[in-house]
Amino acid sequence: MEIRKVSDFKDISAKEALNLVEATENGLTESEASARAKTFGFNTVVEKKRNPLKEFLSKFWGPMAWLLEIAAILAYSIGDHTDAYLIFALLLINTIISFVNESNSQKALELLKKKLSIQTRVLRDGKWAMKEARELVPGDIITVRLGDVIPADAKVLGGDLSVDQSALTVESLPVDLKESGLLYTGSIIKRGEAKCVVVGTGMNTYFGKTVELVNIAKPKSRQEEIMLTIAKYMMYLSIIAFLIVLFFALRLEVGLLVIMTFAVLYIGGGVPAALPVMFTIAQATGATQLAKKGILVTRLDAIENAASIEVLCMDKTGTITMNELEVGDVIPFSGFRKEDVILNACLASNEESKDAIDSTILDYAKAQKVSFGAFRRISFTPFDPSTKRTETIMESKGKRFKAVKGAPQIVLSLCKKATKKMQDEATKAVQDLSLKGCRTLAVARSEDGKPENLEFVGLLALADPLRPDSKAMISEMRDSGVRPMMLTGDNISVAKEIATQAGIGKNIIRISEVNALPEKEQSAAIENCNGIAEIYPEDKFKIVKLIQSRGHMAGMTGDGVNDAPALKQAEMGIAVSNATDVAKAAASMVIIEPGTRVIIEAIKTSRQIYQRMLTWAINKITKSIQFLGLLTIGFFWFHDNIVSLSGLMLAVFANDFMTISLATDNASSTSNPNKWNVMNITIASAMLGALLVIQGLIAIYVAINYFNMDLQGIRTFMVMLLVYTSQFRVLIVRERRHFWSSIPGRDLLITVAVTLTVFTLVGLFGIVMDPVPPAALAFLFVFSALFTMLMDIPKYYAFRRLGL
Fold first, then answer.
1. pTM above 0.85, yes or no
2. What is the spatial distance between Cα 166 and Cα 558, in angstroms, rounded to a whole number?
3. What is the pLDDT of residues 289-317, one digit of tens each?
4. Catalytic residues
5. Which of the listed CATH numbers 3.50.50.60, 3.40.50.300, 3.30.43.10, 3.40.1110.10 matches domain 326-463?
6. CA neighbours closer than 13 Å in the CB half-sphere of residue 135
7. Burial of 419 (0-12, 13-18, 19+ CB in 10 A)
8. I need a labelling partner for 41 at 20 to 30 A (CA). Which of 158, 464, 488, 798 fits?
């Protein structure tokens, strides 16, 4: 027997399905099942086995890790063990944080596996028995009933069912199935009982194909790309500067130890080794802030990604709408009142069945204070897919009557007294309501209980309403420069109606229009649309990838299993509060409180975090260029290094200790998506760094000619210069406008004050290094502060010019 796709069974009869799986209604024998298990495998989700140790060690392999490892080895080789240990500690801290966070990405597959670990009733060797779902094979005959989770894709052989497939498909209402209907793995039986034949198991089910997409889905690591680009630019500058120094050092016959010291200094001072750690700290702090606002972050880099989101794809069901039924409209006919329509619809409903439609009608009646307690039920005929209606015989004050509710065309055909005009009006009303996304029921009543005397009472429209916060959320999203895009399986008319109600827009297209185009033109087709209708679950994953192929950062919201692949593929995947466990595990953010307006909070907070990370990047690149310039020019001035390794580590510590507090700095959210432009960031930083090189050279000149310092004194002086400029510099680069436009965060101000005080005392009293004369220290402090303040003017115009 060959392995077949689930789609092969969609439009065929139950008998044809039995033939395809080479089985009969008598089921398989144990030997047949065993043989098929060898072909199809267990009915489980296949997942790659993880090797935690291997994954952890892999974090030490890569461009950023190599830079740190080279620096540590060089430092150790020249006897500077302390610096080597510090550099390795940076690498280890970042590795641990990254490993712990990425371990969560396997949760989706684990949850899917648990979902299949259920018991089911199977016909084997002519006997019914309970077996684990993992033992099922195509051709097995099973029975399912109320409350069961479908263990495998199956074709209904006999019986009537109402099935909740909302977690798997785009259908929010229960689906009625009878013979030849197709059941999907993970669906839940809401009503009825049926005998079925298994047609797909494990990874060959609709559910399993979703798992494959979840496994395949992998958003491009924007953060890693940014860090590598910055590191690459700084590495190039460091190499060029070192080669220049090396060339002249060899000509001047400078010792090997001095040259190796320069190599370590260029790597340690020029390459932003702490960049991954600082980005992680900023994002972890942001994750804590978002948690307080009702958003759980499961993938840290999603915080930085959220700041750059340009298009947010929103699954209609559960995100824009409530994924709950409510009575949308009541239309009476034949002189009846709305109360009569509601009353008779209630009488034709059964509260005990827990049917979603019946429960919605009964709850609505209670809210409208429609009383039906005075009626006594004589009989009740439940919904049958073949008759498409429910019926009841009620008694009140000694008189019996019949109430009916069901599909409009069926109920109307039973009402012999309904005129042609009434039928046309009812049909028109049903069509109008369907365009609004409503599912309509017709209600009828017979005063004497006889079918031939049924009177048409009216229509009851059921709808999946908009979330109360949807319109406001979409409006704020547009104001934030993010384009909302609705994804739905509804037909184009319904999709346009919902999109209009929610304020998304009217430019809605069909997925079939996109698929009909050549592959290269598909992404252009969705570039400016407001939504895509008539999609299948697997299309969501494709749509996200098409958006990304246009160079856009894509967000995705969803709640069902069918959303999981797209949620994982998107740079920002958001699972709403009522999402399935699978969707939550695949998403990078999970809303833990009802409502969707917190999505805007996530975007705004992420943009604030982006601004803090941008400040850190600018500050770090500026510091690197300042250091590289002074170190290189200093070599030609003194034919030696003007900063010791220990002095460099002190300056780096002062800079990085201070910049940790940037994680909580006061930062503004921008009105448009943020994009990393590393080239422009580097140009602006290079300009600031060059100015600081000039400031440093002036300071060194003063130190030599006015304070009579020798090379050893200059080395200590340089440490203080790097420390002072790092503290004052961050106060101007943190603000894209003039530095006085906003007040720095309390933590940043305290950290800067403490750092300046501590290092001034270190320089003054010669703690861990030679002391600096008080007059020289005072000059350096004031000169650094004034020069840095004046740098704010060219900084302001450079940032504006370069779009930072």
1. no
2. 12
3. 888 888 888 777 788 888 999 999 998 88
4. 315
5. 3.40.1110.10
6. 20
7. exposed
8. 158
